[in-house]
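Hi there. Long-time user, first ticket. I'm pasting a complex I've been working with (about 834 residues overall). I'd like to know whether the download I got is complete or cut off, because the file seemed smaller than I expected. Thanks.
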Amino acid sequence: MQIKDEIYKFFGGIKPNGHKNISTLNPIKKISIPKKLIIPVRQHVGKMPNIIVSEGEYVLKGQLIAEPVTNVSAATHASSSGKVISIKKEDIPHPSGLPDMAVTIETDGKDKWIELEKFQTSKLSIETLLEKMRFSGIVGLGGATFPTHIKLNINKINTLIVNAAECEPFITCDDMAMQEKTDDFLLGIKEVMNLIKIPQAVIGIEENKPLAIEKLSKSIADDNSISLKVIPTVYPSGDEKRLIYLITGIKIAKEKRPAEYGIQVFNVATLISIARFFNHGEPVISRIVTVTGNVKKPNNYEALIGTPINELLRDAGGDTNKEIIMGGPMMGFKLPSTNIAVTKAMNCLLTITDEMENKPSYEMPCIRCTKCVDVCPAQLQPQELYWHAKSSQFEKLTNDYKLFDCIECGCCSYVCPSNIPLVQYYRYAKSEIREQKQSLDIADIARERNDFRLLRIDREKRERAERNAQRRSQVSEDDKKKLIDEKKAAIEAALNRTKEQNL
Amino acid sequence: MTIIDSPAIKKRSSVSIIMFTVILTLIPALLIQIGFFGYQILGNLFFGISFALILESICLYLQKKPIKLFLNDFSAFLTAWLLVISMPSTSPWWLIAIGIFFSIVVAKHAYGGLGSNPFNPAMIGYAVLLISFPKLMTSWPESNSINLNNFLEISTIIVSQPFNYVADAVASATPLDAIKTTLFLGNTIDKNITSFNSSSYQLISVFYLLGGFYLIFKKVISWHLPISFIGGVFVFSMILFLIDPTNFMNPIFHIINGATLLGAFYIITDPVSSPTTIKGKIIFGILVGLITVIVRNFGGYPDGVAFAVIFMNICVPLIEKFSQPKVFGYE
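Hi, the file is complete. Here it is re-exported in full:
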C-alpha cells in the first residue's frame, strides 16, 4: 500500500481544550519504591492467568507471578523484589467496578532483579519469539490491553501504523515517552517491522506535540521505511479506525479488523515495551502515567505496576478527597476509591477540575438539533440511537442504526445542548442487547436439547413398537394356541383350587 | 461502585443559548416592522409572550416538569414571537390569545412538550387563526414608509381593542393578497400591481434573510433547509412564470414576499419538527417550496408557507426513513 502525503480528514470530531501543557513542563519522574505493591493478576483482555506464587514467598523484580493459560491471555510479573503478603480480591481500576484477584508484595527496597534472559531476536524463529512474548506481559498499553503477541501472529501486514495521536485532553504520557525514550520507541517499531516483515511504518501524531514531532523527524530523517504523519488535533483521531482513515484513507467498519486490510496498529508505550523486552529481556513492570487535572504539580511518572495511586497523587500535590478519573476526560471512568494500584491500562490519573465538577447535571428533552450528528466520527445518528435506546427498540438499534459501531468517544454528549448523557444510553442499550442475545443463546440450547429429547422419546417408542411387532411376528400360530391353552389351563386350575378351598 | 459518566467535560451550549441567539437575530426585522406598522406590534408581542409563558408554566406544572428550567429554554418565548410577528399589528388581543393557545397547549404540550411536537407550534397557531379569522389575519395596516412616530408613540403599549374589533378602512392587502384578488377578479398581472404597497414587506424580509445568514454563520442552523426551500420556491414559481407570465408572478416576487424568507430561516429550521438527515432536510425544503408555490397560485389563501410546513411535518418520519446516511465504513 502506498501511503500518500494527504491527510484524510474524518467526519465529525471535536476540539476541546487540550490542557496538555501543564503536565509536559517537567521530565518523567520516578518516585521511591512504594512499601506495598498491589498487582492485579489480570491486567489484560482475555483469560485469567494462573497464579504461580504463594503467600509468604519471596519474589524478585521481574519474576513471573502469574502465567498465561491460553493464547488469549498474558503474564503478570512482580515489579519489585519483596515478600508476597496476600493473594486475594482487591479493588482494581476497571470500569466494571468489581474487585479482582491481586498479589500484594511487601517490598524490601532492594529492587533486586531476577536474572533476565537475553536473546538475539534474529537467531530465533518467529514462533519461539511469540511464545516468549506470551510470557513478557506485553499488552496494548494504549488502554485496550489486548495481548500483543496475538497481534503479531499475523502475516501479510504491509503497513504498521503507530498510534501516537494521544487525542484525549490532559493525557501526555505518550508525548513525553516519545521525547525521552525516542531510541527505544524507534527500536520497537523496527523490531515489529523485522519480526513480521512489514515494509513500512507510519507514525500518526497530532500536531499539538511539536517537541516530539521535532525529535522524531530528526531521528527518522535517514530512514525511508518509517515516516511521520502530523495529523490535525481533532478528538478522537487516536481511535484506531479513525487514525487508519486519517493516514491511509481506508474506512473500516466495526465488524472488520485492520489486519484484513494489511494494517496493524500499535501504541507508543507498547512499542517501547517491545523494545525493552527484545533487547533487555525486561517484562512489563512499569508504565508512564500522567497525573494531572486538579493537582499542584501535574507531571508524568514512570510508575511500577502495583504502585498505589495515592503515592502518585501525593507527590503531584493532589487532593485525595477529589474524585479521580482514570484515563482522559472524554472516555475515562471515575475510580471507586484511591485505594487502587497502577495497572498496565492506566495512562492517566485525572483529578476532577472545577469545570468538571460544575458540569450541569439536568437533562433536557432532545430537540433533534443534530449537533451530535455533526460531530459523530462513526457517522451515526446519535439522536436516533438515543430515541430508540430510550424506547428499548433494540432490533432497530443494531440493524438500522448500527449501535455497535459506536465507539463511545463521547463527542455527542460533549456537544449536546440538552445535556443528555447520550453515551450512557448507548452503553445501557449495548449491555441489554448483549444480555438478550446471551439468554437467547441459552434458550436456543435448551430448545435444541428439548427437541432432541422429544425426538429420542419418539424414536425409543417406535423402536419398542417395532421390537414387539417383530417378536409377535416370529411367534407361529401353533405356539400361540399352545400359549392360550396353557393360560386357560392355569386359570382353570386356579378356579378349581378356590372351589376346593370353599368346600 | 465505579461511576461511568463520561465524558467529564462539556461544551458550553444549551437549548437556551440556541433559542436566545435566534431571538436576537429577529430584533432588527422587528424594529423595521414597528417602523412600518406601528408600536402596537410591541404590545402584541408583550401580551403574546406573557400569555405563552403562563400557558407553558401551567402545562409544565400539570406534567410535573421543573417549570423554571423549562421556561428558561426560551422555546415558548420564540414560538410566541414568531406567531405574533406573523399577525397584523392591528390584531385584537383575543386573536393573539387563541393563536398562542393552539401553539403552546395544543401543538406543543398535548404532544409531550419540548422536543416531542410533530408540528411546528407557531404554524399550527397561525393556521388555526388564518382558517378561522381570515379577514382579521389578512388585514395589514397600510404603510409605505417607515414612520419615526411609530417609535415615539410607545406610550400606550397595550392594545385594547374591543372584542368585536374589525380592521377598518386603514387596512390594506399584502402584495400576495393583492395579486390573488386581481387574478380572482379576472384581471391579469401588470407592472403596477407588482410594485403595489410592497416595499415594507420586502424590507422586513431582507432582514430575516440577514438574520438567517448570521444564524448559518454561527452554526445555529444549517444551510440545507433554508437554501433548499428558497431554491424550491424559485424553481417551481419560475416554471409557472415561464408558462404564463400574465397569471403567475415571477420567482423573485415569491421569494421576497409573504413568509418565504421568515419561513426559510426561522420556521422550517425548527429542529424538532423537521428532518434530521442532510438529504432529508433538502427534500423537505424543496417540497415545502413546492407546496407553498401551489397554495399561493392555485389555493384559496394568499400565502401557503404555514400549510406547506404543517403538511411536510407529517412526512418527516417517512423522509428520514429513506434518507439515512451511510455509517463510517459501510459506504
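A couple of notes from our side: The two ends of chain B are 41 Å apart (CA to CA). The mean pLDDT of chain B is 84.
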